[in-house]
Description:
This protein is α/β, with parallel strands linked by helices. The protein is built from 13 helices and 18 strands.
Amino acid sequence: MSDLNTDLLARDEGLLWHPYASLDGGAHYAVTAAKGATLTLADAHGSHEVIDAMGSWWSMVHGYRHPVLDAAAHAQIDTFSHVMFGGLTHAPAIELAERLVAMAPGELAHVFLADSGSISVEVALKLALQYQDARGKSTGQRFLALRGGYHGDTFATMSVCDPVDGMHAAFAPLGREQVFLPRPPSARRTEDGTWEYDEALLADWETESRSLAAEHATVLAGIICEPVLQGAGGMFIYPPRALRILREIADEHSLLLIFDEIATGFGRTGELFAGEWANVVPDIMCMGKALTGGYLSLAAMLCTPAVAETLRIGSSGTGNALLHGPTFMGNPLACAVACASLDLLTGPGDPRSPQAPWREQVAKLEKGLHDSLMPATDLTAVKDVRVLGGVGVIELDVPVKVHELTHAAVARGVWVRPFRNLVYVMPPYICTEEELRTLGVALTGAIEEIHGA
């Protein structure tokens, strides 16, 4: 490895915090180049060309250095890269909002552009509280959330994450106490397209969920969930039918249903938005990650006209503002790249048509992940292998030896970041069949090396 790359890692250590890491050794590789689905990593042992199986934490759907996205960024920089959104507007933000409304399900017609996924969820929670206050339910200050859920790292979002097994249990005393529904039973989508799950367990879950909602209805503002796939809470897949039950509960008690589609949106699970597996439209929806194709931080919150109008009029007949305003709200550079990313995802036609580029890409990705990861089931340490759309999960029966397995995978040509007992992948949509085969062989080999055959 060059002195430059050695110096980068040395300079980083003790200076920069990395996600969920101490100051000592949070970075193990320096990135020196990226293109397509691959990263060039460097450490003390040399240079490694690897497939980015994480898709830059699930966002880099079109790959690195995509010429269309690069061109959109350059064009916007040549105009202006940022301007405050308070009292001003601009074409990239308007175009993006129009595009999102057109492709969102149902009547989600109003858009708040946030600067990260966590902030979009913060805004969604604020909107739900203001909505209930505007309709005269001042007691509606809490939320129903699912055990196993994850919605971000800011304080309000932490409060609706799993309070026991989540990453934020240490901060629980500082947050508002929410009401948690049990996690629905697990589900699996079979190769013939049907959903398999234990109907009796789902019926029990429904009974308990309806009872909890009724018990706390007077103090609730809304229900929040990651539809069908819980991400950081364990890459857990549950029956779409559960979303219809949550919709019914919300309607029965006049609660707002919030879908956190930050990880699942834009085709990742095999539908454009994961809530569409159940044909359920939420009152509020958050999206992010893949929104800009992984180029820049941007997220959005959408709501229905009924929600927006209630807030606008207010219970007293006076107008009410949505009380949030990030400095980089509606950043023109991010909005311009997002519009270009949506062009690549949907093409010129119906974004839900079989010919939409994302649909063909994710279908190939799903098959490739299934074929490449299923051999891992032969390993004694592997408890389960599951695939949904562009998500592949190898679940071990023991906690993953994270650093050892990561190094073993990199040595085999794949960048992966396991957690808990999960070795999971969310690679770019543009991965080739050969890259997916390499991914499967590398992860199976790495697990066998570190955790045994």
